Each structure stands twice: as C-alpha cells, then as structure tokens.
TrEMBL record:
Superkingdom, taxonomy of origin: Bacteria
Signal peptide positions (record): none
Keyword Metal-binding: yes
UniProt keywords, alphabetically: Isoprene biosynthesis, Magnesium, Metal-binding, Transferase
InterPro entries: Isoprenoid_synthase_dom_sf (IPR008949), Polyprenyl_synt (IPR000092), Polyprenyl_synt_CS (IPR033749), Prenyl_diphosphate_synthase (IPR053378)
PROSITE patterns in the record: POLYPRENYL_SYNTHASE_1, POLYPRENYL_SYNTHASE_2
Name of the protein in its database record: Polyprenyl synthetase
Coiled coil start-end: none
Amino acid sequence: MSVDLKQYLAQRRQMVDAALEAWLPADESGGVILKAMRYSLFAGGKRLRPILCLAGAEAVGGDPRRAMFCACALEMIHTYSLIHDDLPAMDDDDYRRGVPTNHKVFGQGMAVLAGDGLLTQAMVLLTDAAAVGDLPAERARQAANVVMRAAGHLGMVGGQAADLLAETMEPDLAMVDYIHARKTGALICASLEAGGILAGADRDRLSRLVRYGRRIGLAFQIADDLLDLEGDAETLGKATGADAAKGKMTYPAVLGPAQARQTGQRLVEEAVAIIAELGPPARPLELLAHYIMSRTH
Ligand code: GRG
C-alpha cells in the first residue's frame, strides 16, 4: 500500500474534526462553558492521538470508523490536559496552538471548568450507546477502561503530579523516564491499544501495538523537548542549546541534545520493527513513527 503521509494526515484530521464537531456541536444555548470548551478543542491541534487510535485499529485489520468515538474522546482528554497545564498554577502559558490560552480568554475559573467539561464529555462518548454503535459491548468497555486508566493517576495525571514534585530536583534519566512515560506516553500508548481492542486484535497484535506505543510515546516527548530547546536556544542566543537544557526534567538535559536525538531515533526504529509483522495495513503507523521524530512543531 502506498501512503502519502501528508495527504493521510490531512484526510484523517478532517475526519476527526468532523466527528468532534458532531460530538460537541456549537449551540447558542450552551453558554460560555461550551464556547470555552470548543475554543480549545478547535484551536488547531495535530490530532495525533485520535489519528494513532484509528491507525491502530486499521493496522490490525479493523475499520477505523468504528474507533472514531474513542479517537474523539482521546482528543478531548488531551485538550483538557493542555488547558489545565497552561494555567498559572501549573505552567502559566499565554499561548497554545498559536492562540491565547483558554484562561487568557475566558478567565481561570472558566478554564478549569472547560477542562473538566471536556474530560467529562470524553467519558460520555466512551460509554454512549449511540457513539459506540454496534460494537461488542466487552470491546467498548475494555477500550474505555484502557483510556481512562491512562488518563488518571496511574498515567497522565500521575506523570503531571510527579513533574510538579520534581521541580526542585536535579534531573536524572530514571526520573525523566518515569515522568514522561506517564505524562505524555500513557495516553499515546492507550490510543493505540484502544484502537486495537476496538478492532478485535488478538493478544500478539495487541502487544505489538502497545510496545510500538510505548516507544513512540517516549520518542514524541524527546522530539518535543528538542523542539523546545531549539526555541529556547534561539530566544536565549545559545549556540548549541545544550546550556538551555540544563536543570530541566527533559531528555536533552540528562543526555545532551545529540544523544537524546539518537535515543529518539533508536526508539522509532524499534517501534517500526515491532509493527512490521502486521504487514501493509500497518504502513501508516510506520510513517507516523518517522513523522514523530522529524516533525517541526
Ligand atoms: C494537567 C492533568 C494534566 C496533565 C497535563 C500532557 C500534559 C499533562 C501537559 C502538556 C505539557 C507538554 C507541552 C508536554 C509535552 C508533550 C505534549 C503533550 C505536547 C502537546 O501535544 P501535541 O504536540 O499538541 O500533540 P497539539 O496541540 O498538536 O494537540
């Protein structure tokens, strides 16, 4: 199967956006809270997690459209995490996805609620009979469990908590791995696993998706750290970026930028080897793995 990645991503993004629109439509009577939720949801994200969920289903021979409700739930959870992460009590950021952050537009209280609303709407989707359609109930239950577990204190929330607590610590590789496997990696991995579950993957195929997911989750974080570093180095006028990395809980800080990049590339190669066994339907996952390390934003 020949797949043009740019075209594939654009087409999948369009499908996801249309489904998100259907699951959280504009409604004049929805008030400010709905406007705040939609503001961040439609601010122009890459839709990476939903696309991975659909590609995971596809890679094991399933129909990606049957995983769409779960893909949308993943994007809502991801968007909620970004809104909360940007708050003054956390990262205190003014811009996200190229526009002012949610709390800059709607105020802090409303931004907290917009995040809460998106997380709750994700749970509605994962358990809504109309969203789930005629899927075997046990598959839908398992996928919902995997996604919610990954979002919670054993996954993304736990990773964010560890990151907060580690702020004053000297960075080391074990701590960086611990934080990022949970904060970013867990939801990325769950996207693939849930896609596979919904498509009825057997044990071996599911395990391949999970092992692929763990590796690209970490590679994604490394790429994100390196992109941040390039931005910081530009802003601070540092030649290599190595100085800009110092003291932060990031891969470039503990490994140095060059070794961090090598590690990311090794993880991508391992991920690609793991899914090679799934054959041509896994070709999009192969391209997505390479895209993750080579992306520019
Ligand atoms: C507040 C519970 C809670 C969790 C926050 C994910 C997270 C945990 C914080 C985000 C901090 C951050 C920028 C981490 C780096 C990796 C990351 C998640 C980047 C943003 O994801 P993209 O690049 O964003 O997929 P888009 O906007 O394209 O969806």
